[in-house]
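Quick one, tokens below:
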């Protein structure tokens, strides 16, 4: 059965998306179009490129996550110097190693630019901080005077995964200036709305996979220091736009995967943690797909 899919962001929690996708495959659902933000954008891009669930698990399993952290070199190897990079370069890590890894894995499937994919099959969310707006890639590139077909998919993923202050933002060179682009989750972490037409209708069933519990099942956040405050502030901000869209009506099409006990930037995940996240995704998907879709279109 052909469906469309939307994957939420969540950083390293995204391992759970792999488990859910494997079950979706096993139930003979095939994605016609996919979209996502940050970790969800990575998942969507790999699916659009033709990777199956087992292959995605294997390439993530062989990856040394810490190899994606590439701080700038400093003259003085002092701890406080990394925070100087946040001030000067707007992030702890350059993000070049991350983009290079995206490029290598997509190239293995013959995917370099958006023209290598079926038109409309992949949509990636990023945030334009300079102009204060959501960017849907590749659709909105024309507004910046950029040829969407020639734009690197790996670059688009790097833009969508630019966690503020963690990775340096991407500066997009355009004829209208040089806007600063960061993680899509700043403005829409779960773009379930992306395949709706102008009347809010869909042309085929849509399945969303969200890295969180349902809103009513989430525990209140404990805020007793500055770091807790920042995490709560960012989490509230990134979910605000999407919560206005998601209703009881939409929840029937969403697999919620509770992963609140993991951090989005937990790059020291060991094999047990990865396996746990994948199993959580599988378990939730297995339970959900027993009754989905309720109404076939």
């Amino acid at each position: 059965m052909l469906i469309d899919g939307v994957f939420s962001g969540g950083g390293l929690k995204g391992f759970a998306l792999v488990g859910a996708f494997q079950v979706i495959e096993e139930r003979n659902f095939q994605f016609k179009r996919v979209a996502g933000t940050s970790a969800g954008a990575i998942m969507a891009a790999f699916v659009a490129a033709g990777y199956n669930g087992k292959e995605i698990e294997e390439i993530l399993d062989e990856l040394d996550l810490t190899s994606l952290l590439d701080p700038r070199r400093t003259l003085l190897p002092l701890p406080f110097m990394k925070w100087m990079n946040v001030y000067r370069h707007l992030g702890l890590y350059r993000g070049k190693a991350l983009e290079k890894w995206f490029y290598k894995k997509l190239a293995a499937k013959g995917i370099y630019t958006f023209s290598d994919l079926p038109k409309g099959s992949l949509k990636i969310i990023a945030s334009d901080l300079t102009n204060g707006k959501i960017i849907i890639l590749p659709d909105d590139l024309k507004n910046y005077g950029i040829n969407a077909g020639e734009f690197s998919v790996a670059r688009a993923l790097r833009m969508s995964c630019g966690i503020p202050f963690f990775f340096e933002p991407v500066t997009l060179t355009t004829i209208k200036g040089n806007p600063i682009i960061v993680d899509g989750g700043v403005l829409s972490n779960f773009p379930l709305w992306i395949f709706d037409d102008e009347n809010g209708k869909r042309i085929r069933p849509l399945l969303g996979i969200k890295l969180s519990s349902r809103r009513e099942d989430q525990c209140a956040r404990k805020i007793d220091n500055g770091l807790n405050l920042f995490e709560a502030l960012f989490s509230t901000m990134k979910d605000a736009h999407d919560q206005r869209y998601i209703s009881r009506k939409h929840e029937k099409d969403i697999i919620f995967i509770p992963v609140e006990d993991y951090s989005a930037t937990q790059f020291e995940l060991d094999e047990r943690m990865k396996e746990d996240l994948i199993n959580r995704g599988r378990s939730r998907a297995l339970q959900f797909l027993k009754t989905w879709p309720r109404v076939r279109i």
